Amino acid sequence: MSLILLTALLTSPATPTQESLDAPPPGMVHVRGGDALIGLDIDDVKAIIMENEGMAGPLASETPQHTMKVEDFYLMTTPVTHEQYAAYVRATGAKPPHLWGAAALDEGRKQYLEEEAARRREALNEGIRLERVPFDPEEWWDKNWESCDWEVPENLLDHPVVNVTYYDVEAYARWAGLRPMTEFEYQYAARGKKNQPYPWGDKWDDKLYCNTFHYGEDTTQPVASFEEGAVGGIFDLVGNVWEWTSSPFSAYPKYKPVKVDVGRGKQKRTVEGLAGWDPNARVAVGGSYKNDKLAARVTTRRNTDRTQSTDALGFRCAADAVPGKDLLRWIIDDDVQFRVLPEDTDFYGEEPIIAQKWTSKASEVSREIPGYSVITGHEYFAFAPALQAPGASVKNLGDESEKNGPVVLGILTTTSPTLEPKLDPGTYFLTWREAAKVEEEEPSEDEEEEQAAPPLASFTEAANFNAEVASFIFFDIEGKPVTAVPATELNYDRPTKSKSPLRVDPWVPPDPEEVDEDDEDYVPPVPMDTVVLGVFVAGKHKSKGFNFDLPIKVKPDTIDDTWRR
To answer: Taking Cα atoms as reference points, which of 491, 500, 501, 495 lies closest to residue 543?
Structure first.
């Protein structure tokens, strides 16, 4: 390891730390949170504009410089490689990049040219001159990839994957249990509080630090090829490929157009830098092998349409330091059908109860890449409580459940099937309903017309539902009842801090001495571990709410010591 890299590892804000109780996800390092210096000073921008008038608008988007708080997070040590992306494509059946279908593309190009030549001949016979339409490999691949064979070129395994849209990035990140990084996390990892243009400082060398136009190769390079340009164990923060972020291309706080006087005498004029904001677009960062050192600055913000894919645009992932937060954000934002829930229902996904496990494998490339790993899967068992339950006592909650239907207590999501209650892998709403106090009368026809069915009104159709006992009722994300189990006791009080929010009680087989083997009616119990979630859902009183245990039975060793809890 070079002295430059060793110094960077010891001094960068992105240096891995042991303060976190959990190890980072595979292929990532822990970045300690802190105050991040974001953007570029307006005087520095003006000086750059004077030498690059055509870049006035994009440069103005980097102002004004300001400081913001960045929380702890994890960040991939390199951009996602073809090898890492291939693990996702193989696991999910997602569309591979067209670079992997070289043989199919060659055949498609040949067929296209033959058909195009025939079409042109036919048109000429009719006295029509057709404009030549070149073969578009990406368009052809989009239409035909599902019926084509593909393989990752061996020489690209450790290169950054490219030709991915922002939607591809989101899909990979969710599958891997991660998320796209923000531009603020990127800038913080690259320079912390230092007002410097590049991750390593303010010096420039065409060959030493990163892969840009100046490097002279006009193609991507294997990741982590420039250790002198790394900081905190994180490589390729500039150069090689642009990297997607989740940040909209929007103005920084207190942004104003930048005006610069250039030239002298009669040649003097004012250049106005006005950024073309587009909050539907995303910011890409870092520059690429096609760009010069101006684009490789850590403050550069590239306005990038989410559908765009190029051979110089890739990505790397981040993850929140709070376990499960990213997972529940994906589910709450993308999956939950709030229209099927009672009005004002929301969920607290900031600190979910979770057990999770990543699977990974070693790299197939011959050289060792520091901190690099190939994620092959992400398993989880997680619960996010409702933001608030509509009650200030268990009696209040019971009255609410009788009047307006089951009360929503949270979201359960799992990649593993459960045995009691019997649930397939997926996401479910957990609701609670008090035992019926009296036999419910059938409403008259007039009343039926006046009363709109409350959300989750079909709860009685849930398997195993018993109106005579308080029940936990599980609904799928479409609002359809799935199953019900007798509810454990609810306790209205302050949050219970003395017990773990998730524990696994292992299966204990019956004592052989207590089993009557001659009993013809004896049925051996099914081996099952019990996952016990200790849940707190806030109520209407400040700092008080509903404490309860949610026991879920699963196959033995579904969650073992290799899972993070």
So the answer is: 495
